[in-house]
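Sample log: tRNA/rRNA methyltransferase SpoU type domain-containing protein.
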Amino acid sequence: MAAPLWPLHGANLGTLLRTCDAVGACLAVPRFPWVPEALRRGNTLRRPACVHWVHDPPGWLARERAAGTHVVGVELAEEAVRLADLPAARGRMIAVLGHEQTGIPPEVLDLLDTVVEIPMVGTGASLNVAVAGSLVLYKLAGLL
């Protein structure tokens, strides 16, 4: 499951929705007023997609983790695993994607079981959230 819980741009949600369909995953999104329209516009499949609505991201992640779901955060951190070394998912897993500018909130970092980073060679510090999420989802699905 991809969880862009602090989205900034609706276009990223549409891209992630399409990637979720491609790898057989669901998308977890916050209940922001503009999100349903962004998903409707981004759903180029023109059929219902697997979407979970999240009211309280930290609480939801804590409950999922307590239920045995492995929570992976895509974030720059010293203890991060490089994307190439991330194993394919063997059970229920959530890939948490942070805000495009501020990343994953500090109060959520303690809820992550694994932190994964995508190495950058150029001058940018990170990729667009939809691109980063897509790469991680393909890797977790065992398709990369």
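Observation: The chain has a mean pLDDT of 92.
Observation: The beta strands are 2-4, 27-30, 51-54, 70-74, 81-82, 93-97, 114-117.
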